[in-house]
Write a structure and sequence with these properties.
- By secondary structure, this protein is an all-alpha fold.
- The protein has four helices and no strands.
- The protein folds into two domains: about 30 residues; about 35 residues.
């Protein structure tokens, strides 16, 4: 039975699938490492900004808002204003 499994594993289609799977896993691992390095770099920039007197929370909000188009930003602001007004937080 083991000989049959080994013979099956040596078939070109099986070998190709294993190599392809290994390649995909290695690419994902490499990208995860790059993502971690990038996250560390971003954290360092926020720390630098904070050290220079900037508010990191405000910077994160601005970065998130800049990813939105104008209409999305207006809608988000309108919803926030509506909620703040309903809670009596706007003067």
């Amino acid at each position: 039975m083991a000989a049959t499994a080994e013979a099956h594993d040596d078939q070109p289609s099986t070998r190709f699938a294993k190599d392809q799977l290994k390649s995909i896993i290695e690419r994902i691992e490499r990208l995860e490492e790059e993502k971690k390095a990038t996250s560390d770099d971003i954290r360092d920039v926020y720390a630098e900004a904070k050290g220079n007197g900037f508010d990191a929370k405000a910077l994160r909000t601005i970065v998130r808002m800049r990813k939105m188009d104008v209409d999305e930003r207006r809608e988000a602001q309108d919803i926030l204003d509506t909620y703040l007004n309903a809670l009596g937080m706007l003067q």
